[in-house]
């Protein structure tokens, strides 16, 4: 993690407070780390330099903490709006999320190469490489094919 690699005199650069932490508590812990390790913190146009004396101006610290509180509040409001929108969509009968993959969705090229795999001529990595897809997708397709063959 980045924080573990920081050394005295390093600089942390971010466009806004929300990019540095997920919560106000986490951001305050980051500010303490900046002071302890004598770091320089640049957030947008605001620069905090703790490299020389390990201290931070009280007004700057307060401003950053307030920015963090508002950032967390904004994140919570967005989350609530998204959840509300999803509930409204469900109430209207809309299906959310990615459609389920079925055996009919499997590309014909995969079906051809799967025959080589089932004959023991290709392993999953080779099957993945030949079809230009991740191993996870290959396993999903294999599972769908084998399930279809059982039925």
Folded structure, characterized:
The chain is mainly α and 151 residues long. The protein has 2 domains: 2-91, 3-Layer(aba) Sandwich (Rossmann fold); 103-150. It is 58% helix and 8% strand. It has 6 helices and 3 strands, in the order H-E-H-E-E-H-H-H-H. The chain has helices spanning 2-5, 24-37, 58-91, 108-118, 124-131, 135-150; strands spanning 11-14, 40-43, 46-49. Strands 1-2-3 form a 3-stranded mixed β-sheet, with no helix packed on it. Strand 1, helix 2 (24-37) and strand 2 (40-43) form a beta-alpha-beta unit. The longest helix is centred in the middle third of the chain and has 34 residues, at 58-91. The protein is elongated, with a radius of gyration of 26 Å.
Q: How far from one another are the termini?
A: 48 Å
Number of domains: 2
Strand content: 5-15%
List the uncertain runs: none
CATH topology of the largest domain: the name is Rossmann fold
CATH architecture of the largest domain: 3-Layer(aba) Sandwich
What oligomeric state is this? Answer: single chain
Average pLDDT confidence is 90
Number of strands: 3
